[in-house]
Amino acid sequence: MRPRLALALALALALACERQPVPAPAAPTPLPIRGADLSMLPALRASGLRLLDRQGRPADPLRVLRDAGATTIRLRLWVDPADGVSAYPAVSALAREVEELGMDVMLCVHYSDTWADPGQQHTPARWQNLELDALADSLYSYTRRVVEGIRPRYVQIGNEINNGMLWPQGHAQNGEALELLLARAAKAVREARTGSQILLHYAGHRGAQDFFERLGAIDHDLIGLSYYPIWHGPSLDSLGMALQGLSRRHGKGVMVVETSYAFSLGWNDWTGNIIGAEAQLLPSFAATPKGQRDFLAAVLQQVRRATQPAGFCYWGGEWVSFAGPQSTEGSSWENQALWDFEGRALMVLDNFAAEP
């Protein structure tokens, strides 16, 4: 080929390549579960406090979440609570509202009359002093009954069960007993509603691999972790690596089923807040509305790194200081809610949109 002709062809090819449109980077696949735990909503409504949407208009929290793009509302269920907030009648009624608004229900069954977490897993009063087989039968019957009644899309069997549940019978030190109880709970869910997905929940990421290795034989669909920097460490990369490893090892969807962050270090009642000092924050995220939004976005980036990213639920989003400005028994979570001290929805709701 003559040199001039070759040069002309090369120049034409280069110009043609320059004119080719550069494809835009693909948008992240929407997380199927974009949710919030609104278990305190009945108490908020009973107080008469009205919350606002992002434009400052009065709006019910469920509708605000739905309009922001939320797909799922997580609801806590206690067996025989001292008050009615997390009792079956209130939870089932709220679940119907959620479904009528087109969102899914994630039922978080605590198997306790009160809070259940790694430090406390109290057996309900009605089941105390039962032998293991009788306890397993009671758990099975109860689980089947509540799932048949509420018909949730997702069912969490136990809450933050790092150290087991239904102590002392189901303590993690009694491995065979814990496996029996979880297996009976899972069986009840499957028989009560074929379409429900079962989630196992571990608080934090340290030790999560060993935990799910031990319970790998339990029938479940989703792996859920809690992540609060104050309790589970400052490393988002460690969280992401744990989620990746769990999804790859077990072939299941993974999610951060509890997380939150402060939008302020101030307070709106006289109840001590869980987060109240700079040392409790991550250096990259200030306690501002933007810092709260960016923290959650960073958590979701780690979720998306997993082989099967399922999503997230924000915890305590509605737990504003609805007991009054001088209450000493109000909200310890008020500065981590999804609404500010004026009751207005915060920019963190941007993370619930289908396309981030």
Report on the structure:
It contains ten helices and eight strands. The protein is of the alpha/beta class and 356 residues long. It has one domain (31-352): TIM Barrel (Alpha-Beta Barrel), CATH 3.20.20. Strand 4 (154-157), helix 6 (175-192) and strand 5 (197-203) form a beta-alpha-beta unit. Helix 5 runs parallel beside helix 6 (175-192) and helix 9 (236-250) runs parallel beside helix 10 (289-304).
Structural descriptors:
single chain; 356 residues; alpha/beta; TIM Barrel; eight-stranded parallel β-barrel; 13% strand; globular
Question: How do the strands of the widest beta sheet line up side by side?
Answer: 1-2-3-4-5-6-7-8
Low-confidence stretches: 5-18
Tally of separate domains: 1
Taken in chain order, the helices and strands follow as HEHHEHEHEHEHEHHEHE
Based on CA inertia axes, which overall geometry fits? globular
Q: How many H/I helices?
A: 10
Q: If you average the pLDDT, what whole number results?
A: 93
So what's the CATH class?
Alpha Beta
Query: Count the strands?
Result: 8
Per the CATH scheme, the topology name is TIM Barrel
Helix content: 25-40%
- For the termini, the CA-CA separation is 52 Å
Gyration radius (Cα, Å) is 23 Å
Biggest sheet details: 8 strands, parallel, barrel
Query: What structural class results from the helix and strand content?
Result: alpha/beta
The appropriate CATH architecture is Alpha-Beta Barrel
CATH superfamily: Glycosidases
Strand share of the residues? 5-15%
